Model the fold of this input.
Amino acid sequence: MTSQSSILDAEESLSTSAPGFEPGVPLETEAEKPASGMPYFNPWIIALVVTMGTFMEVLDTSIANVALPHIAGSLSASQDESTWVLTTYLVANAIILPISGWISSVLGRRNFYLGSVILFTAFSAACGLAPTLGMLVAFRVLQGLAGGGLQPSVQAILADTFPGNKRGMAMAVYTVAILCAPVLGPTLGGWITDNYSWRWIFYINIPVGLACAFFTRIVLHDPPHLIAARKAQKGKPLQVDFGGLALISIGLGALEIVLDKGQELDWLGSTFITWSSIVAVGCLVGAIVWELYVDKPVVNLRLLGERNFAICCTIVLALYTALYATTFLLPQFMQQMLGYDATTAGIAVSPAGLVTMAEVPLVGWLLSRGSDARRMIAMGITMITLGTWWLAHGNLEVSMSDMIWPRILQVMGVGLTTVPLSTIMFRFLPGDQTSNAAGIYALVRNEGGSIGIAISSTFLQRMTQTHQAYLAANITGSNVAAIQAAHALGGAVGGASADTSYAGLALVYHQLQRQAELLAYMDQYKLFAYVLACVLPLVLLLKKPPKIVGKIELDAH
Done:
């Protein structure tokens, strides 16, 4: 009883100094002002400038997907070889995401963000000029390393720039960028490739990157707590966690290769994937142990000891696993099963992005008015689950609208979930750990996407084979209905009786394959709906924020 009362007393004392966002209570806290002598800019100008760079970087994760056949043909490579253009970019992204907070603390957040934008733009131009596939892959690695830190940097910048009562709207702007960019990427990439050249999907980054770098240099400055930390470190030897850096880089790189190439190479049936899996597991387990016990870790995993932050990361992992899986499955279903071309399939999923652009600012406004973030998260997960379950009731006769409306409901749920998550994940963390927290959060989000695509592509093929085996078991000489169907279809083809018999059986088998693949698609949607339903109770575990607003000083260790 005594220990329980002491915990309650401690929480009450902390509640008087809690920072940032407070559901149910309008906030009155102010963001940190620039250091003395630094010019002051409206926070919304800063938000638009830094979000421009993030949109450009996230767009490049998906814009090259539809251009792979053109890249392969232009550079005299096979289709399988061209997929390394995507894989290497994701590997480089995964390596840089978790360590971006540490790099920001060494270089300064402004210098890190500005340098990332400049290098990303330069390597984008190099990708467009690449004369061979090998050089293109090398430049994609460098492009991924340069751009990987933009996402977490923007979240940390917004968290420090905006006061708590406006942070919801700021995160809404960021969410529009990271949700709309993957949706628009394939459509924009297909249009550019069809009308110009695949090289222009990289060249379009140049004017955007130059504009972003120009304005970033003018409006962005480090917050006072980062300036103070760098001054305190000045003159002291730089302590680099080389062990953690090596383990994390190798482990995440190997994991990304396993997830991206596993299905293509038959998972553990491939020696390469087997050894990559062993390296990934060994390095990542070693990294977790190392980072928890080293004095100054390159990735502060101790932040996951804070319950709200850990739950937010778990929810976003499941959320983006389901989102990217359905984003991968839906256009493929529309093209392979319904006969849509790539451009039409891309246009069909675009309305969801447009709805999100209108919805997310409203969500941010509701947060700024004091709406309870936990209720919004619960409602959003429910909407995503219902939208995914809705997709699981399709058939081969569905219209385009039958694909559009479930997707709109699904993506509206994503907007209603991610904005509050991005806002409250910093809730009980110390202000000087925002960069580290944003890096971990962005890594979890990106790995969720990779896991979702890996699971969906694997299960789609395996479940198609399973359903085909079950359905084919009924196509026998003793099945009167099957024989009659074969004769009817063969008669419609015409020709000699022996030929029509074989033609009829072939047509029956073709329909069987289509039905097996349809059932496999529907199984995937049901699977991810179950995954989303399982994370819904986690919302109940989120801490109820205290009623008094202020500044928290919790020890992240």
About this structure: Confidence is low (pLDDT under 50) at residues 1-29, 546-557. Residues 434-472 form the longest helix (39 residues). Residues 343 and 429 are 44 Å apart (CA to CA). The radius of gyration is 26 Å.
